[in-house]
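Reminder: ligand-aware prediction takes two inputs, not one.
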Amino acid sequence: MDFVRVLVVGVFISLALRDGSAEQVMGLPPCDFPAIYNFGDSNSDTGGISAAFLPIQAPYGVNFFRKPAGRDSDGRLIIDFIAEHLGLPYLSAYLDSIGTNYHHGANFATGGSTIRRQNETIFENGISPFSLDIQTVHYDQFKARTSELYKQAKDPADRSKLPRPPQYFSRALYTFDIGQNDLAAGFRKLSDAQLQAAMPDIVNQLASAVTHLYQRGARAFWIHNTGPIGCLPVATLYIRNPNPGFLDQYGCIKGQNDKAIEFNRQLKARVIKLRAELPQAALTYVDVYAAKYTLISNTKNQGFTDPLKICCGRHDNNINVWCGQRAIVNGSDVYGDTCAYPSTYVSWDGVHYTQAANQWVANHILNGSLSDPPIPITHACHKRLRM
Ligand SMILES: *[C@@H]1O[C@H](CO)[C@@H](O)[C@H](O)[C@H]1NC(C)=O
Ligand SMILES: *[C@@H]1O[C@H](CO)[C@@H](O)[C@H](O)[C@H]1NC(C)=O
Ligand SMILES: *[C@@H]1O[C@H](CO)[C@@H](O)[C@H](O)[C@H]1NC(C)=O
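Here is what comes back for the chain with 2-acetamido-2-deoxy-beta-D-glucopyranose:
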């Protein structure tokens, strides 16, 4: 029986590789990923920066976890919907030492992370000290130390919170969502030409992280591109009387989105090149930009309100009281509270998406329709020969 199954699977695989079409890959069994290892910034941080620095406060987390849950949203992030979709638990943050379980993976993302080191502290512009190169060092340390602990453990209960080496590393899905803060730092510190000139280095450092993990046995990579950063309300909040053409028809800063598009163009080209450099890797490039921009440009049809409106916090009369903060305005105490209907907002706090928007985006990327190659995440371990 086993022989027959092996034979059938073998036939499927050779067909898939010869033909190279997404349909053939779909004929293969789902990957059955035992674990997820995630690298990124606040778009996918499930508790890292909150544990390492100042805890994220209420009302963050209120619409799902019913309490702050280390996430910059009112509920789940895209990475949480990915975990759900793959039948895995939500990822514990590597930097969190309390109540964590790493059996099915770990999250190395931290809010404020960049691909490149920024030479800034978190107290200046919120830049995390855990840039992507440090996140991969954390991964190495995590892998070495959990593997050792796993081998030493006498009691099965001691192993139940650790990944099983080596399969839970080699067969895991490695996810990336990072780059947005490199652009934000670029807008802040570099000229347009300098940021343009830095772009290949930023993209190369992301490719280096992928290569680093590949050399240590990782094979399946799911790489998000960066979102329309110029559509974040925080970007447009302070703009008064913009010149014609500065904003697009949805109120997003066009020049900033153009930089994100350029980053994504170079990232996609680099991922295609990586396929040649890392012959055994299955690399999926995911157009998160398209998903987010499609939502922003279709909010009315999709049951959302004006995409530049901020749910949590108070932003009127030139007063900005950010989500969860308090301020004295005209002698009275003002609290940056949540809006009444968070599920109709795209932006939770001016920088981060609501759970409802994250779910919408996840629904549009998980089935592979915005991926290169167009393979659903359940099949993202299968490599295609010809693209
Ligand atoms: C940070 O500082 C180092 C050493 O001065 C420099 O090589 C590097 O380019 C800087 N990084 C950025 C992103 O500015
Ligand atoms: C504060 O009070 C002044 C004077 O009454 C008023 O003009 C201004 O709009 C008030 N600001 C806010 C944010 O309510
Ligand atoms: C993927 O999901 C989105 C959202 O549900 C849907 O609009 C799209 O048609 C789907 N694409 C495929 C290829 O299934």
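The chain has 14 helices and ten strands. The domain at 31-304+357-379 is CATH 3.40.50 (Rossmann fold). We will return to this case in the review session.
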